[in-house]
Amino acid sequence: MIPDVTPDLCPGAEVPPGPLLAPNPPAPAKNPNCKIMTFRPTMEEFKDFAKYIVYMESQGAHRAGLAKVIPPEGWKPRSTYETIEAMVIPAPIMQVVTGQSGLFTQYNIQKKSMTVGEYRKLANSKKYCTPRHKDFDDLERKYWKNLTFVSPIYGADVSGSIYDKDIDEWNIGHLNTLLDMVEQECGIVIEGVNTPYLYFGMWKTTFAWHTEDMDLYSINYLHFGQSKSWYAVPPEHGKRLERLAQGFFPGSAQGCDAFLRHKMTLISPSILKKYGIPFDRVTQNEGEFMITFPYGFHAGFNHGFNCAESTNFATLRWVDYGKMATQCTCRKDMVKISMDVFVRCLQPDRYEMWKQGKDITVLDHLKPTEVSSPELERWRLDRVTFRLSSPRPIDSNMKKQQHLWQNRSPNFLAEKAFNAAVAALQPHCAVCSIFCPYTKSTLIRLQIVQIAAARLLTGAPRTSHITPILSTVTPTVPTPRHGNLTRPLVPEMCFSVGAGTTEPPPTNCHIGDDGTSLLIRCSSCHMQVHSSCYGVKPDSFNDSWMCSRCVSRAWTVECCLCNLRGGALKITTDNRWVHIICAIAVAEARFVNAVEREPVDVSAVPETRKNLKCVFCHGNSANQNRGACIQCSHENCATSFHVTCAQIAGINMKPADWPYVVSVTCHKHKKFMQKPTKPIAPKGPQGPTLGQKVIGRNSDGWFYHCTIIGMATQKYYEVNFEDGSYCDNLYPENIVSHDCLHNGPPEHGELIVVCSPEGQCQNASFIKEHPHNFYQVEFQNQSQLMLKQNEIFYLDQELPKRVRARLLPIFMKINSVMFDWFLNYITDFHSDWMQIAQFIAIFFEKMGVPTLTYCIVINGDRNFGNTVLEVLCIRLTLRCHYLE
């Protein structure tokens, strides 16, 4: 049985309970053997999470890199777990392990979503269940012996918490530690780092050797199920483990200095023993906590079906670790936290030196953390306890703007902050935003701008770090403000079609001859729109202009077709209010005056539409307006959602052809449309392969034999701009209205916003994607070059005339003087071009060059004679001089 090692002051005794107040830090001699310690706090000690962590480190727990905490008897984070069977695991992963002799690499393959109930049945099935075993030692041997067989499925990284809301002690969703600075100061929510993640495991599911992101602390609670085995290497020996891994996995180490952060590397205890790497092991049982400490490498596996919850946290001691943490640079999804706010607030005397890169930090792995500092207390007094949103609901992918819900009390300040944030993002118009779905990066930026706007509106001091963090999320682009002219994305037909209207749309005098319209902003609610989208004459706009809602002083009104506040509102014929974007997308709504965009007639909206349930907000609250939902335009798809809910959730909406106004594609069918069935390719060459011998074009314009040593693919997009021009080599990252790098290309004809490297933004429509293949080749003189596919030819294919005329099968290494002597010698004795050609062919054959190839070169031009010979002489002379 794998024992729980509990080093103590007295052998055989448990760690004594900690005092209510953390004692002064003791001498760093505690736990000299760096063994994993087990703690049993009393209920009184258990109430203060931060102080107990300080106490644990005062006992030397941090020296092992891992510690176990057993909660007081009777404490439970949840009353019952029977209700979580219907929870969805959105992206389970199959863990495929390769390797042998104690050294393995783990690969993750994403599988289709399943419920917790379905996962439990799978985990307990004959194929995946825990094998029979005598004890934990026997189970551990079976784990390392069978690691590469029967790949298990891990329900990892499920965002959310299953703690009951009234639990205050050690609530993983609300630890209230130093890491809260990231959210409270910067407005950034990093899932799994400062929000909880759930992990559903089965037998043999594994977490590979790693330290936490940014070398943070972590907490892991095993809610229910089978046990979990942990291995830990003390932080003071972490560098030794890194060097060992680099030696065994040199390819991974060359590709990324921090490759252990990929969580793919498994090293068995036998290898660690063989190379003298200190480590310890412990078993986590149901109802127990595990705490990992900064730069503490750990790994482990699950004994069977279980459920754990985890997140990261920080103490004062971590700040220096965060400043020194190595970063993975090869993956875009790796977590990186700006240390600016921590150094500026907690180490103000070192801030300027740190910004200049002159701050010398020496990590002391033996020093325990402190409970507080004058700088931390000052920040706690000054901080604004403002959370942008609760952790993401486990049953939804929507980033809900909860302070804008209609079932909450009206909050005009929150609406102003939201409107100001939307105005700062492309396309800078609250109406045109209907055709620019929010992406993940856009939502992060929306949250950051929102908190900045809220602080400005409340008079709170503006933090200097918001702008640099914002610029790391999305490229900094000049933001058009009110008073600027930009092109609206909403066609005029969207305002005039409805209720069977077949008349052509009226001419909008608010749009200029060049297709642009003035951006105007309400001085009261900060809502920004095009004058044409809102139906306002451009010359009537001034700094004191107010929208219809604010002119009517209707501060608490809400849209009658959805459940969210904020945005551009217009009055209806029955004296209610409606979002312009809701009136556009709901087919039965009609603008009575299409030019002025008001009033809006919603009387034709049928009850069947009002009875549809939104998949994002559900509309289950008794005092919540049901509104009217729209549905996915894909044939036979019944997915329904409110217009504003769909916009926040990133649902794709675009203008449609008459008689429809808006075409809507839900997430399911967007993925379906992005993965068309591949046509069956005809049998034959599938493109060059690594190591293949080909003919390639060198930088001097000549073609030579070479070998392919590398391949890459670059995708370009073809778009049509509104001015009639087009571009067929646009990089995906230049499209700022869509997250193309994560979600793939837009649909054909979809409206997009393109930003040039100079910061100029234009409206365009997407045409198609062009993948371009590039090949790295090595010539016989060991020079290398990156070539396009049209610059490479196969050895057995019929070469074009332009290639044959400039083909040299090898780099000639003969001396030009020797060749000139040979050429003069044969021309003295032979005047016939055929005989000269034969002698030249014999010469090349002696040099190891195939005769046929050079006969083709000579015969490439039918004007035989001295001209051909002179040209050949010049070519070879130039080639020889080039190599000399």
UniProtKB/TrEMBL annotation:
InterPro entries documented for this protein: EPHD (IPR034732), JmjC_dom (IPR003347), JmjN (IPR003349), KDM4-like_Tudor (IPR040477), Tudor (IPR002999), Znf_FYVE_PHD (IPR011011), Znf_PHD (IPR001965), Znf_PHD-finger (IPR019787)
Annotated localization: Nucleus
Keyword Ligase among UniProt keywords: no
Molecular functions per Gene Ontology: histone H3K9me2/H3K9me3 demethylase activity; zinc ion binding
Chief location category: nucleus
One Pfam family linked to the record: Tudor_2
EC number(s) from the headed UniProt entry: 1.14.11.66
GO cellular component: chromatin; nucleus
Domain PHD-type: 556-670
Keyword 4Fe-4S among record annotations: no
GO biological process: regulation of gene expression
Alphabetized SUPFAM superfamilies for the sequence: Clavaminate synthase-like, FYVE/PHD zinc finger, Tudor/PWWP/MBT
Catalytic activity as recorded in UniProt: N(6),N(6),N(6)-trimethyl-L-lysyl(9)-[histone H3] + 2 2-oxoglutarate + 2 O2 = N(6)-methyl-L-lysyl(9)-[histone H3] + 2 formaldehyde + 2 succinate + 2 CO2
The family this protein is said to belong to: Belongs to the JHDM3 histone demethylase family.
Annotated protein name in UniProt: Lysine-specific demethylase 4B
